[in-house]
Amino acid sequence: MSSGRQPGKALPGKEELEAMSAFRYELRKFLRMSEEISSAAGVTTLQYQLLLHVRGFEGRQWATVGELAERLQAAPNGTAALVSRCESAGLVTRKPDASDRRQVQVHLTRKGERCLLKLAAEHKAHYGSFGWVFGDSGA
């Protein structure tokens, strides 16, 4: 019979629980603030995150639906639907991949770029307690 505990995993102590609680609290405050910023701009937080991940993919200016699904931790079909909603809103466009016809690249439109930069600037202003994001000079 199993006790429910996994072998090799120590139970957290009081200080660790306090640290986890503080982290979750700060994370939730940030997410709520992000929801407010995005909503005021007329987009959802998922749309903002998609725009951020398209532009924030290392080494290029686009991403595939599969890559976006991974970054969003979402199902590929749900991510494809989100891309379609962003495309209908004029924020992104799909382009066939020249080297792999099975892949479709998602690119920001000019409107999507403007929206992303505006929202990212507002988010960056609130990253103060997250110094690890930009280093000490980014806040």
Automatic annotation (TrEMBL):
A biological process from GO: response to stress
All copies of domain HTH marR-type, residue ranges: 20-139
Keyword DNA-binding listed: yes
Swiss-Prot/TrEMBL keywords: DNA-binding
UniProt organism field: Paraburkholderia diazotrophica
Annotated Pfam families: MarR_2
InterPro entries assigned: HTH_MarR-typ, MarR/SlyA-like, WH-like_DNA-bd_sf, WH_DNA-bd_sf
Protein name: DNA-binding transcriptional regulator, MarR family
Residue ranges of the TM segments: none
